[in-house]
């Protein structure tokens, strides 16, 4: 599902027309419609506005994740550790280097869940 489809679905979930959505974003109707039709790409500031308006992450809008819940993305480390291109202070980490980190965190979570 592309960004345009996601934007259209989110708009319809809220019961908004293209006109109302454009007004809420302080954009022209044709500009917003262009995003839904994928004829235009929003700038980073507009992408942030879209994210805030619909209450989803920018990663969700960009199709980088299926997770819509911003809070879950902010706090669930397991979601971040599944992403590619992770680095530590600018130093890229390989899949091989990340595997033991994931395993240690998984083990800690399993132990903690047994004691809850």
TrEMBL record:
Gene3D superfamilies: lambda repressor-like DNA-binding domains. The keyword Hydrolase does not apply. It comes from the Bacteria. One of its GO terms (molecular function) is DNA binding. Residues 7-61 form the HTH cro/C1-type domain. The keyword DNA-binding applies. InterPro entries: Cro/C1-type_HTH, Lambda_DNA-bd_dom_sf. CDD domains: HTH_XRE. Keywords: DNA-binding. PANTHER family: HTH-TYPE TRANSCRIPTIONAL REGULATOR XRE, TRACRIPTIONAL REGULATORY PROTEIN-RELATED-RELATED. This is Putative transcriptional regulator. It comes from Caldibacillus debilis GB1. The lineage of its organism: Bacteria, Bacillati, Bacillota, Bacilli, Bacillales.
């Amino acid at each position: 599902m592309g960004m345009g489809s996601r934007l259209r679905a989110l708009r319809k979930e809220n019961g908004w027309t293209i006109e109302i959505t454009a007004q809420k974003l302080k954009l022209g109707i044709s500009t917003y419609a262009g995003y839904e039709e994928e004829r235009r790409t929003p700038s980073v500031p507009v992408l942030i506005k879209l994210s805030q308006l619909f209450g989803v992450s920018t990663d969700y809008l960009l199709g980088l994740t299926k997770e819509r819940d911003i809070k879950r993305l902010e706090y669930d480390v397991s979601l971040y550790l599944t992403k590619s291109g992770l680095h530590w202070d600018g130093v890229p980490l390989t899949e091989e280097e990340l595997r033991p980190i994931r395993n240690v965190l998984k083990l800690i979570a399993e132990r903690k869940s047994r004691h809850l």
